[in-house]
Amino acid sequence: MTHRKKTTVYITRKLPDAVETRMRELFDAHLNIDDVPRTREQLLEAVQSCDVLVPTVTDVVDAELIEAAGPQLKLIASFSNGTDHIDVDAAARKGITVTNTPNVLTEDTADMTLALILAVPRRLAEGSRILMDPQTDWAGWSPTWMLGRRIWGKRIGIVGMGRIGTAVARRAKAFGLSIHYHNRKRANPQTENELEATYWDSLDQMLARVDIVSVNCPSTPATYHLLSARRLALMQPTSYIVNTARGGIIDESALIQCIREGKIAGAGLDVYEREPAVNPKLIKLAQEGKVVLLPHMGSATIEGRIEMGEKVIINIRTYFDGHRPPNRVLPGRD
Predict the structure, then answer these.
(1) 333 is catalytic
(2) Does the annotation count 246 as an active-site position?
């Protein structure tokens, strides 16, 4: 009896044990047990021998890497929602299909966004740090101790009213925030009515009027530095900005300057422009209690990661069974 050769799958980072075990059962899966990011040389070697590459958002799968791939590479099954780290057009030219794992991280990312929306005005990280500092002798409650700002009754401006933006809006409304949003396309009337949302065709106009800005749009060439120095300067000096999307959407240097000069009250960031590097000036602002910084953990839940892995497996199996994968990413789509 002849055994069918298993599909060779190269996985660039460590995935949850349940996902890796299933992949080993189904495929000739090459795992990254130590979770050390793969080097460029390792990726170049991998694409010359594997049938499927499973990268994450930290892997640069550009035209050069794709062009170096052997003829056996048929599928790039990304373990991610976004695909801005992959040159999808170059893959299409080479006849390689690209898939992603959409609609898994919406609720997790929205939860983390709301956590930052609460943490920054109410000074949660700063307060926690004070209690853990052995040099701080906390004297107890005082009427003027650690005063923050109320979010109930304030206006939130959501930049990007897609799935995550809408999920953030639902949570924000439950916390008494008035919903404002800017999007390429206006939300459907049912969603607007449910959220009692105000649509702004002009991002500039919205920024000048809201108390909290939540960045939830995708990373595309059109959204790079969408929150530029000019636009950040439009915000109120008592306003806050939260970003759980992609670091490059905000001009980080301009943001630091605005906060330093008191033109913006503070920020909550889960993503950074030169990630994994974090600007030392941001860290200094965090130490001063002006910003809350998280290490890109907005989507980091056990349930979410397992669901992502399951989608990767379905995409691989569907493709090699001769069908179109359910989460195929088409070229030329921002």
Answers:
(1) no
(2) yes
The answer to whether residue 296 is catalytic is yes
Contacts of 183 (CB under 8 A, 6+ apart): 160, 161, 162, 165, 199, 217
Q: In this structure, which topology does domain 8-104+302-320 adopt according to CATH?
A: Rossmann fold (3.40.50)
Fold of 106-293: Rossmann fold (3.40.50)
- Determine which one of 13, 30, 170, 296 is catalytic: 296
Domain with CATH 3.40.50.720 in the chain: 8-104+302-320, 106-293
d(CA 247, CA 270): 8
Of the candidates 137, 172, 136, the one whose C-alpha atom is nearest the C-alpha of residue 156 is: 172
Per-residue tens of pLDDT for the chain, all 334 residues: 456 789 999 999 999 999 999 999 999 999 999 999 999 999 999 999 999 999 999 999 999 999 999 999 999 999 998 898 999 999 999 999 999 999 999 999 999 999 999 999 999 999 999 899 888 888 899 999 999 999 999 999 999 999 999 999 999 999 999 999 999 999 999 999 999 999 999 999 999 999 999 999 998 899 999 999 999 999 999 999 999 999 999 999 999 999 999 999 999 999 999 999 999 999 999 999 999 999 999 999 999 999 999 999 999 999 999 999 999 999 875 4
Beta-carbon contacts of 45 under 8 Å, excluding residues fewer than 6 positions away, are: none
